[in-house]
Amino acid sequence: MRIAQIAPLYEAVPPKFYGGTERVVSYLTEALVAQGHDVTLFASGDSVTSATLEAVWPRALRLDPSVRDALAPHALLTETVRQRASEFDVLHFHLDYMPFGVFGQMDVPFVTTLHGRLDLPELQPVFDIFPQAEVVSISDAQRAPLRAKWRDTVYHGLPEDLLRPHPGAKPEYLAFLGRICPEKRVDTAIKIAKQSGLPLKIAAKVDKVDQEYYDREIVPLLNDANVEFIGEITEAQKAEFLSNAKALLLPIDWPEPFGLVMIEAMACGTPVIAFNRGSVPEVVDHGLTGFVVEDVYGAVAALSRLGDLSRDAVRAQFEKRFTADKMASRYVENYQALLKAAGRPALRQVNG
């Protein structure tokens, strides 16, 4: 099939550091190419891909301080895709509701994966006015607040060999990985670590918008001798960081749409202890890949049960459920269904 993947321009594909959506777009794109599809990636010019790259903007907006209106490059992006739409069997957008108006008037099938939280009151009127726009959720829980034309739920996946248990790992500490902001509750992770008596290592990004929160609420907690703040780490550093952790803590206080960090930990054989919010009970197999808990007390109690879990079984469950190849195959099923519904033959067939 000839497939267009349309990524946001805020980060490169894949991002240099933190960036969940663009990272998933990269994993999906590379898996589709490996399966034999003809893929064009519409993204920033500093993206790296084995697909055909259509560089709509020279570099990721996060790294381009000269850009003060982020909507302008995205308007250029959507128009560039519109002008080339007939070249593709299907257009796969990762731009929330931005494509609905223009592409709903065209005869090229398109689908949008929604990557963010959907419990915002301003969203429903937008989806009400575009009732035929087909969307994919990244967890069933993500769908709950929004009435939309749901096509499927497709869980995120990682390349199977991207992260593996680190040779000679000696799990000694608890890990927190991701971004520091109020809803991720690194303060709660610190509390869990303190009550359990285990050291905590925090590998996290601090966005400008969260700097004041970090300085006011989190920095005073970092004085604890058992807490080490590492800062933002690269993809290459994740396997060692996660493999040497007894467990990943995810004490979130928001309806997490998916939580890529959970499957990153599982890929390293590291159990996940996460609060029962959003997608967590769909991603974590309670008692197999970790524990789904309700509060700090439950998290501390779960830490005492880590010996019941097999790190090999955690890795095996990752391979069974959350590889990029499985994610890509599920999306291809959706692309084919869209083509069939539109009565269009594929521009390119994939053998085998």
From TrEMBL:
GO terms for molecular function: glycosyltransferase activity. Keywords: Transferase. Residues 18-119 form the Glycosyltransferase subfamily 4-like N-terminal domain. The keyword Transferase applies. CDD domains: GT4_AviGT4-like (cd03802). SUPFAM superfamilies: UDP-Glycosyltransferase/glycogen phosphorylase. Residues 170-296 form the Glycosyl transferase family domain. It comes from the Bacteria. This is Glycosyltransferase involved in cell wall bisynthesis. It comes from Chitinasiproducens palmae. The lineage of its organism: Bacteria, Pseudomonadati, Pseudomonadota, Betaproteobacteria, Burkholderiales.
